[in-house]
Amino acid sequence: MLSAVGFIMIALIIILLIKEKMSPVAVMIIVPTIAAFVVGTGIDDLSQYVSGGMDSIKSNAFMFIFSILFFGIMSDVGVFDALVERLAAWASDNPIKITVATAIIAIIAHLDGSAAATLLITVPAMLPIYKKLGMRPQTLLTIIAVSVGVMNLLPWGGPTVRAATVIGMDPTELWTHLIPLQVVGVISALSVAVILGLREKRHAVRNASVELGDEVNINAKEELPSRHYEEKGLDERLKKLRPVNIILTIAIIGLLMANSVIDLPSYYVFMLGTVIAMVINFPNLKDQNEQIKKHAASALTIVATIMAAGVMVGIMEGTGMLDAMAETIIGIIPEALGKFTHIIFGVLGAPLGMIVGTDAYFYGILPPIASVGDAFGISHLNTAIAMLIGKNSILLLSPMVPATWLGLGLFDDKISIRDHIKATFGWCYAISILMLIVAVVLGIITI
């Protein structure tokens, strides 16, 4: 009974999320609540289960709120702009430099964990250069997708927060296990950029509107539709504060990386960073309130989803549905394959993640698979890491992710979703498999 209701509940959640019939918040509150009553849960027990679920996610919700505020402020005051413009100018007329600069810009721009912001920074900065040299726009989008797939493992990135929520872990603690893999991923993304740059060099020689080696004369302030200071209305005071803001950003990331040594809650680190950033850059109370209002909407959607996931996980665990589902799956899986459950789903993570979308993947598939792995001696952490790697790698390829359509739209719909997947999936999937192998070799994922 418990197992059957659990599977029906998961199937309904995934179907409703894929078909976008209801918001994720509504789906993950209403469906589990109905399921709880179906299996005979009383009001008092339900209240206990929900409270337990909310207790497990509150620190993640707090961290996400303040990480969005912090990086939003840093972006507004121009922390990333000057570097983006200099990299674009440095790339000049060399296709390999241009593709490498694209990857570096996307990697830096994605420090805030927002795929949409990364696209809005990188595409306007680099697309004019690609057009000038006759380089293919698809190469630009492929490099951004590869870079985002690696950088989205950051603890304030949506997928990592979701995975941490499901297994009841602090996202920063989860990230500390992912750092070596992220380093491998960044190197891989830069390597892909070099390979694609070599391809574009051959392509550009045949098709460029200017000869390679001629002066392209790209002025980041005049020709590129970049987010420079005048466009943003930033005054001279904020320009002078840029070095201070860069140091503050590095310090906050450093504190998060040193989490195992300096035991500060990640949400408190971002709280400190946010209030320091507001006091330094916007000493006026009105301006501080405007900053909070400006970025609150971005934070609210994901935080509401995380809280709804807390309700769902609390009900699934409290009623015993999760354990019952795991036992059913365990009875089906051959004993010889059981200990490889996390590896199997790590390999399947990319194609599976493209089909079901982020919320359905982490809130619908990860919980029962983590429980199955647990029965075979696989820790929830191992399962979460394996499934995270695969899903993150194809973030900007999935039709279920709104940022994918934003990226295609920035190219005036000249790139189709089919062509984008065809050109990019192989690179992203290869990096995810490489990271999975490295994780096993380094003992981050155990077998």
From TrEMBL:
Chain segments annotated as transmembrane: 6-39, 60-80, 139-158, 178-198, 244-262, 268-285, 297-316, 393-411, 423-445
Stored Pfam families: CitMHS
Compartments, as annotated in UniProt: Membrane
InterPro entries noted in UniProt: Cit_transptr-like_dom, Citrate_transporter, Glcn_transporter
Identification of the protein by name: Citrate transporter
NCBIfam families: citMHS
Organism lineage string: Bacteria, Bacillati, Bacillota, Tissierellia, Tissierellales
Molecular functions (GO terms): citrate transmembrane transporter activity; gluconate transmembrane transporter activity
Keyword terms, alphabetized: Membrane, Transmembrane, Transmembrane helix, Transport
Mode of membrane association: Multi-pass membrane protein
Gene it is expressed from: citN
Superkingdom assignment: Bacteria
Domain Citrate transporter-like: from-to ranges: 14-390
Annotated Gene Ontology cellular component terms: plasma membrane
